[in-house]
Amino acid sequence: MLVNSNRDRIAERREATRREILDVAWQLARERGLSQLTLRDIAHRVGMRAPSLYSHFESKNAIYDAMFAGAWTECLAVMTAAAGSPADSPRAAMRQLARAFFDFSASDLSRYQLMNQRTIFGFEPSAESYAPAVATLEVLHAALAAQNVTRQADIDLCVAVISGLIDAQLANDPGGDRWSHLLERAIDMLADNLGIPARGTRSTRRSP
Amino acid sequence: MLVNSNRDRIAERREATRREILDVAWQLARERGLSQLTLRDIAHRVGMRAPSLYSHFESKNAIYDAMFAGAWTECLAVMTAAAGSPADSPRAAMRQLARAFFDFSASDLSRYQLMNQRTIFGFEPSAESYAPAVATLEVLHAALAAQNVTRQADIDLCVAVISGLIDAQLANDPGGDRWSHLLERAIDMLADNLGIPARGTRSTRRSP
DNA sequence: GTCTATACACCGATAGAC
DNA sequence: GTCTATCGGTGTATAGAC
């Protein structure tokens, strides 16, 4: 038992160090750009020498991979919460979900680039790190399926329109709201195209 | 006169070298990623040593800048041609323009990243290099104005939807057509939202 | 003018002492 | 687990040959 709790304490400390490294990495990515991240900078801010990072991550790519997983896990939580909160109409449910994703994405360029764009050439997330991204997409699928939107093309169109607004916002007016305030209009446009009623049935299926 | 033609020949040769350097740079950007571009690689493939590039470009950033200018100049030509060719309806004119931009953009990820995304952190194009980008946007403005679409929000929405499709295509199905074939549908959706008639008046204004 | 040679400070990564 | 030392790369810059 004592041995076990000692082990736990060591594992806990290791995990804390890992988290601190990742926190610092995000901080630096926001300051200097995702691709300008250097192991020396990370290590220095954590209070180590660069090679010591290799005791916690096997490579720089592994750090990117852990950052990718963390970002999508966070996004999954945001989206799950948005999908779970009540909405007055099918469109309101869509707006809620889209707004949650937009605000989460637009608040951090570096994070969005790592999650969705190919900014780090050659970076491919591992299967484990990709899992929360898939889970997030499944939240979206379920929300659209509740409005009887199930065709892949319809889903793809929604994804493209929303991420188009995010991209435009981040690339052309970072920190502003020039494209952000177009989101609700875009959702209505999509809802029109997909035949989702403006009001009427609640967003949950088969409820009495 | 002889002096002049000699000067011209030298300038011509210099310009040819510049073009060759830029061609090689694009080639390597496509192979290895935009941010993985190195002066040594460029120089080696051109048949020089790295420092010799400084006789033609004052820095690596100047190479990016020239690439940016070239890409937008090419895009401007494509868009001008698309805007000039006749169309049967206002929507057909919009489809033509959008299709031209989509195909141009989706055919080269690195080029699209340099033109439209913030992949190279800290890179800001010079005013001269930005000019063809502005001119391209003006082609779009003029085309939309011909359909009485002049509000900034309307234009922003069009830009976001089209570039959203391009981003999704490049990020999730590079080389494929999963989002490409949604373009015409997206344009119709936009046209509906903007009140552009499906058929009727030609795309030119005030023609008898 | 254009090139080669060389140098500098930095990068990711590894080896091995402690 | 963290360190120092070091490796082959990188962008950048200068000196000097031709």
Summarize it.
Two copies of one chain form a homodimer. With 208 residues, the first copy, chain A, is an all-alpha fold.
Layout of secondary structure:
Two copies of one chain form a homodimer.
Chain A: H1 2-32, H2 39-46, H3 60-84, H4 90-106, H5 109-116, H6 127-145, H7 152-172, H8 183-194
Helix pairs in contact in A: 1-2, 3-4, 3-6, 4-7, 4-8, 7-8
Chain B binds a DNA duplex (18 and 18 nucleotides) through loops.
Describe this protein's structure:
2 copies of one chain form a homodimer. The first copy, chain A, is mainly alpha-helical and 208 residues long. Chain A has 2 domains: 8-58, Arc Repressor Mutant, subunit A (Orthogonal Bundle); 69-208, Tetracycline Repressor, domain 2, CATH 1.10.357. The first copy, chain A, is 68% helix and 0% strand. Chain A has helices at residues 2-32, 39-46, 60-84, 90-106, 109-116, 127-145, 152-172, 183-194. The relative contact order of chain A is 0.11. The model of chain A is unreliable at 202-208 (pLDDT under 50). Chains A and B meet through helix 5, helix 7 and helix 8 of A and helix 5, helix 7 and helix 8 of B. Chain B binds a DNA duplex (18 and 18 nucleotides) through loops.
Total tally of structural domains of chain A: 2
- What is the CATH H-level superfamily of the largest domain in chain A? Tetracycline Repressor, domain 2
| N- to C-terminal distance of chain A | 53 Å
Order of helices and strands of chain A: HHHHHHHH
CATH class of the largest domain in chain A: Mainly Alpha
Radius of gyration of chain A: 20 Å
What is the level-2 CATH architecture name of the largest domain in chain A? Orthogonal Bundle
How many individual β-strands of chain A?
0
The unreliable regions of chain A are: 202-208
CATH T-level topology of the largest domain in chain A: Tetracycline Repressor, domain 2
What oligomeric state is this?
A: homodimer
Specify the biggest β-sheet of chain A: none
Average pLDDT of chain A: 93
Q: How big a fraction of the residues of chain A is strand?
A: under 5%
Class derived from helix and strand content of chain A: mainly alpha
What's the tally of helices of chain A? 8
